[in-house]
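Protocol step 6 of 9: fold each sequence in the batch and record its C-alpha cells directly after the sequence line. For illustration, a two-sequence batch is reproduced in full.

Sequence one:
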Amino acid sequence: MNKQVPLLFLNVIIIATCGLIYELLAATVSSYVLGDSVTQFSLVIGIYLSAMGVGSWLSGYLDKDLAKRFVEIELAVAVIGGFSAPLLFLTFASLSYFNLILYGTVFVIGALVGLEIPLLMRILKDELDFKKLVARVLALDYAGALVASLLFPIFLVPKLGLIRTSLLFGLLNAGVGIWGTWLLENLIKKRELTILRIKGFIVVILLLVALIKADSLTTLAEDALFADNIIYAKSSSYQRIVVTKGKTGYSLFLNGNLQFNSFDEYRYHEALVHPAFAAHDGQPKRILVLGGGDGLAVREILKYPSIESVTLVDLDPLMTQISKSVPALGELNKNSLNDARVSVVNNDAFVWLDANNAEPFDIAIIDFPDPNNFALGKLYTTRFYNLLKKKLKPDSAIVIQTTSPLFARKSFWCIMKTLEASGFHVKPFNTTVPSFGIWGYALAKLEPFEAPQKPSENIELKFLNENSFASMFEFSADTNLPKDEEIEINRLDNQALVRYYESEWRRFE
C-alpha cells in the first residue's frame, strides 16, 4: 500500500476541509434563521468539537474491517453533511423543535468526522512509524481547516450560496469514499467492495440531482422563511440580501432580518435624518452617511438645498447597487445614489474612519444594522465614536439608529452611555415604526445643546410635524433609563452591547 499512502494523506486534508465547512454552514444557517449569531456560532462550534471527541473515543470500539468502516463513514458524512443546509432551512419553518435538529445534525457530523481520522491513522500505522504518522496527520488536518476557513467566506458563500456549498462538499465526501474503495481495495473483501461502490454512486447521484435543483431548494427554503413573494435574493461576501413584495409593499431583509418595508420606511428615515438638520445651527453642506446602502437616508438628505456633497460608506457593493437590480427600490429612494453630489465608498466604516483624512463633515447619519454580532458591535464602541469625532466640526450634529428602547432597553441605553463616554452630548429620542414597533435613535453633538422642537422649514415631510417632532424626545416609563441597574459602556474589549442585545431579543424568538 506504500504507493497509496500520499493519496490517503490527501484524504486527511479533504476530510478536515469538509468537516469544517459543514460546521461553518450550520453556524451560518442558524445565525441566519435565528439571528442570535454569537451564541449560535459558539454553541455550534462547541458541540461540533465535543462530538469529534466522542467520535474519536468511539473509534476505539471498531476492531475489524477498518477500511470498510472508513468508506461507510465517509459516505454517511456525504449524505448528512451534504444535505445539512437544505435540511436546516426547510425544518426551521415547519418544525417547532428546530434547535434539536440543528444541534443533532452538528453532533452527528462531528462524531462521524471524529471517527474518520483515527480510523485512517490505524489503517496507515503499518506504513509509517508512529511519530511521523501523528505529525503528518495532524499537520494535514489543520491545513484542511485553514483551506475551509479561507474558502468559506471568500468564495463559497458569495459565489455558490449555502445550499450549493453544502451539496458540493457532500459530493466531495462521496468522491473520497468511492476513491477509498480503490485505494484500500486490498483491505476490503471483493463482495463488500462492490456493495460500497454501488452505495457510493447512489449517494453521488442523489447529491448531483439536488445540486442541479439547488435553485429550487433555495427558493423552497426561503419561501418558507418569508411570508411574501421573493423577487430578489442574492448572497454577497458579507450577507444574504432578500427583497420581497407583498400587500404592504416591498421589504428588504439582510440575513433574514427586516431592514425596512416600503409601506412605513419614511417614518424611520425621516426620524433618522431630520433631527440632525434641525439641531445644526448653520447651512450644512458636507454630509457623511455610514451604512444606509439602500439610499433611503440619502433621499431625505438631498431634500436640503444647501447640500454640496454626501459621502456614503457601506461595506457591501451589492447593497449599494440594489436599486439597479430592483428598480422599485430605485423609485423608492428616488435614485438618490445616482445624484452627482453623492459619492459611494464600499469599505468597512471602522477602517474608513481610521484611515481617511477627509475634510470634516457638518452632519453624520449612522444607519448600521443592529449589533447582533461582534463585527457590528464594534461600530457602536467608544473606539468607533472617537474615530468619528475626528471627522466632525465642533458644531456638527449626528444621528445614530440605536435599536428599540422597548424591546432592547439596556441595549438602547448602553449606546447612549457609550456616546457620552466618548465625549458627546446626547439627546435620545424614539418614534413608532409599525414594521418595527417603538424604535430608538441618538442625536448627539460635541457641544452642549437643547433638543430641537421642530423640523427645518420648507422641507417636504410625510410624517414629522411640530407635534410629532417634539414628542419624539419624550420617553415612557417602560422605555426610559432603568434606575436600578448599572449599564456598561460598550468597548472593543468587552462588547457589552452585543451581550445585552442577544439576551434581550432572545426573549422574542
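Sequence two, same batch, same settings:
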Amino acid sequence: MEWLDAMRGLTMILVVAYHVAQISFGVSERTSSSLPFLVLFRMPLFFFVSGFLAYKASFEWTVPNTLRLTWKKLKIQVLPALVFLCVLIILRRPEFWTPFMNAMHSPTKGGYWFTWVLLQMFVIYYLACLLQRCLPPSPPKGKGANNAVIWVLFVVSLFVYESLYLPKIFTFYKNDFFLYSSLIKTLNFLPFFLFGNLVHRYWEKILKLDILSWFFPLLTIVAFVCCADIFRWHTLKFAWTNLPRTVAMFSLLSMVLIFFYYYKEWFTSDKVIGRSLQYIGVRTLDIYLLHFILLPKMPQVGEWLNHNRPNFILEIVTSFSVALVVIGFCLLISHILRISPIFRQYLFGRK
C-alpha cells in the first residue's frame, strides 16, 4: 500500500510542522489559527496508521510468538527514545539530571512520549489477540471472535477517553503512576489505534461500499458542523463538551484516509510527490527521534504571525516550509548514522 506510506509521510510532516510552530516560533494553540485544527487529526492519524499496520492476518498468536514480537517492539520503542532524549538534554540544557527526571515524571517525556505510548498500545493489542485463544472456537478463518475482542476493547477505550475530559473523574489520572508511565497519553490515543486496526480487518468489505456517493459528503458535513461547534458555537456544556471534538477527530481522520486512497495513483513510487512522501513515511522513527534536536529558535517569526493573525494559510506555509528543511537534515543525519550497523540496529531498529 504505497498510498498508506505516503499518508504516514504527510502525518510526519504535520507532526514536525506543529512542533516548528509551537517550539520554534513560540505560537500557542490559544492564539493560532491553524494549530487547533491540525491537532484534531495530526496524532490520531499517526496512531490510526500504526493500528492499521499492526493487524497481521496470517500471524499465529501463540505465547512464544507474542513474546518475541513484544521484545522486538521493546527494543525499537524504548532504547532509541531514551538515547535521543539524553542527547537533547545534553545539547539544549545547562545541566542533565534535573531536566531528565522532570522529563521522566512528565507524560510527554520531553517530547519523546510517542514511542513509549505506542509500545503500550502494542502490548494491549497483543494481549487482546492472545485472549482470542482463550475463547470458544471461532468462526471460519478465526476472524469473528477476534474482531469481537477488538470491538469491545475499542468501545471501552472510547468511554475511558471521554472520561479524561470529565473534571470529577480526571483527578483519578493525576497521580505519579499515570505521569511516569505516560498511560494517560495511551488512553488519549488508544481509540484511534484500535480504529485503524478495525478498518484494516474490514478493509475488503469497506472497499465494496459506495463510500463516495453518500458517506464522504456526510462525513464532510459532520466534520464541518463539529469543527464549527468546537471553534465557534460551543453549544454543548459539561459532560458533553468533548463529544463534537471526538466526532471531528474521527471524521477528519477518515476524510484524509479516503482522500489518499481515492487519489492513490498520485502517491505511487513513479510520482515525485508519492516517492517523496513514501520516503518520509518509511523513516518516521528516524525523523521523530532527530527533529527535536534540530528545531531552530525563531521567536521573531512567531511574533510576526501573531501580528498578522488570523491567517490560516500563512501559518501553514511558514510552518511547513521550516518543517521540510528540518526533515531534510533529519534524513541526512539518519543516513550518516545508519552507516554503522550498531546505530542502524539499536537506534533505528533496522538490521
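Proceed to step 7 once all outputs are recorded. Observation for sequence two: Residues 2-346 form one domain.
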